[in-house]
Amino acid sequence: MSKRKLTKLQQTRIKQQQEQATVTASGQHAIVTANRGKTVIIEDQAQQTFICNIRQNIDTLVCGDHVIWQQQDETTGVVLALEPRTNYLARPDRRGQAKVVAANIDQLMIVSAVKPALNTRLIDRYLVAAELSDITPLIVFNKIDLPDKIKMNDFQEQLSIYTELGYQVVFTSAKQDKGISDLQSILVDKISVFVGHSGVGKSSIINALLPESPAEVGEISDSTQKGRHTTTLAQLYHLPNGGNLIDSPGIREFGLWQVKLQQAAEGFIEFRPYLRHCRFRDCLHEEEPGCRILEAVKEGKITDMRWDSYRRIMDSLREAP
Ligand SMILES: Nc1nc2c(ncn2[C@@H]2O[C@H](COP(=O)(O)OP(=O)(O)O)[C@@H](O)[C@H]2O)c(=O)[nH]1
Ligand SMILES: [Mg+2]
Ligand SMILES: [Zn+2]
């Protein structure tokens, strides 16, 4: 096709694509380890860090973002392009708009504990959030130094529902340094994020994993300080035995958000084989006739506990503005 036949818009697009290709070819790959507002800290493949300005055409950059950049001097550079994100975590900002806080995450470490009481509904909410975001979830059960043997058996039984679903459950005591080495090997070669209710021991676990100890133990409930935490900056940390953590108080309280009613069931992995076999195409699997999920619950193929969680999540999604 001759150039004359292209519209102005097409020509502009081609020019942009060519420019992008040049940028990608000439630049180097790096990962964003912190966002400092107008600048970002990036780390190149030799694990050297640089402070970078950001080309104007690039949207917000977050921890975990893969970028193309060019070095300027020994400590600075410029980010030229953002590579596509495989996934991301977002939180609502003050106006309720989605604010991406971290990207390209491999594992969501869902922390629960003996105290505050084991909350399987909250675990289910995090599992749904992880599944819908394409992030592998794991469950960490902390403070195993507290219960006696009988109580511990009871916890193990309650949590076996997750192992049966195929989720890994790690038992830890940050206090007695139990299970921390198990965590270390799980975290190797991955980018992970720790989430969970305030007080379960996230900061304590992170401190046990990281020698430079970034997290304050026993800090005031993250959830009561939401406004302040939206401004808390995330950081990517290297673990001494390999692997990376992205952490900030705001991220630790990441929750189920912006999920459509029709999507929620997809977040329950054991529902998946039955989805799309219901009588009604827009079935929400709550009380509709001919619902395959409800049948599976009756047949005992889906547990009452998980289905109950599903119903509660649906209720909460309806209440959300
Ligand atoms: N007994 C016991 N207490 C713990 C353990 N991990 C954390 N804690 C305590 O639980 C409280 C909350 O811990 P923190 O790490 O701040 O929890 P976060 O809010 O999830 O970050 C603190 O008083 C910790 O000392 C543990 O494994 N066993
Ligand atoms: Mg904390
Ligand atoms: Zn259904």
Ligand identities: guanosine-5'-diphosphate, magnesium ion, zinc ion
User: What is the CATH homology-level superfamily of the largest domain?
Assistant: P-loop containing nucleotide triphosphate hydrolases
Give the CATH level 1 class of the largest domain.
Alpha Beta
Shape by Cα distribution: flat
CA radius of gyration is 23 Å
Number of helices: 10
Major sheet details: 6 strands, mixed
Q: Strand pairing plus helix content: what structural class?
A: alpha/beta
Question: How many domains is the backbone divided into?
Answer: 3
- CATH topology of the largest domain, what is it called? Rossmann fold
Characteristics:
single chain, 321 residues, alpha/beta, OB fold (Dihydrolipoamide Acetyltransferase, E2P), Rossmann fold, Ribonucleotide Reductase Protein R1, domain 1, 3 domains, 6-stranded mixed beta sheet, 5-stranded mixed β-barrel, 10 helices, flat, binds guanosine-5'-diphosphate, binds magnesium ion, binds zinc ion
Would you mind describing this structure in some detail?
The chain has 10 helices and 13 strands. The protein has 321 residues and is α/β, with parallel strands linked by helices. The chain has 3 domains: 80 residues, OB fold (Dihydrolipoamide Acetyltransferase, E2P), CATH 2.40.50.140; 165 residues, P-loop containing nucleotide triphosphate hydrolases (Rossmann fold, 3-Layer(aba) Sandwich), CATH 3.40.50.300; 59 residues, Probable gtpase engc, domain 3 (Ribonucleotide Reductase Protein R1, domain 1, Orthogonal Bundle). The strands form 3 sheets. It has a 6-stranded mixed β-sheet, with helices on both faces. Strands 1-2-3-5-4 form a 5-stranded mixed barrel. α2 crosses α10. The longest helix is centred in the N-terminal third of the chain and has 19 residues. About 4% of the residues have low confidence. The structure holds guanosine-5'-diphosphate, magnesium ion and zinc ion. The site of zinc ion has 7 residues, from α9.
